[in-house]
Amino acid sequence: MTPEDQRLLSRAIALAATARESGNPPFGSLLTGPDGSVIAEEHNTVLTDGDITAHPELKLARWAARELDPATAATTTMYTSCQPCGMCAGAIERSGLGRVVFALSSEQLAKLKPPTVGPAARQEGPALFEEARVPVEGYYLP
Ligand SMILES: [Zn+2]
Questions:
Q1: Is 36 left (phi over 0), alpha (psi -120 to 50) or beta?
Q2: 57 noted as active-site residue
Q3: Cα 141 to middle of ligand 1, angstroms
């Protein structure tokens, strides 16, 4: 990690403070382009938007997928105040971003907050394979 990486991580941490000051969970992220300049910034707006998906990493991944061609997206780096959660990690992977640099790890964050409450949703399946495969067949593979 370079001094420039650390400078950009400090900016992501400042965005996390902005999120908290605006009444939201304290997380912030930014995206740099191929030349290392900041091309987008976001902070968490889960509470003010009433949107459980309004994590900054997810908002930036959606923005990149919408606004950047895949070759450009691959040259970007996301700097984020905390390691992306599972939802955001999936979106980052789908958006084709090139690199993620984070400050707090998930383990470090877990020590700074109460444990997550409520059981995880139970998943059941697979089922109805013959029926469910019909709309999928031929979409990805000829
Ligand atoms: Zn997230």
A1: left
A2: yes
A3: 31
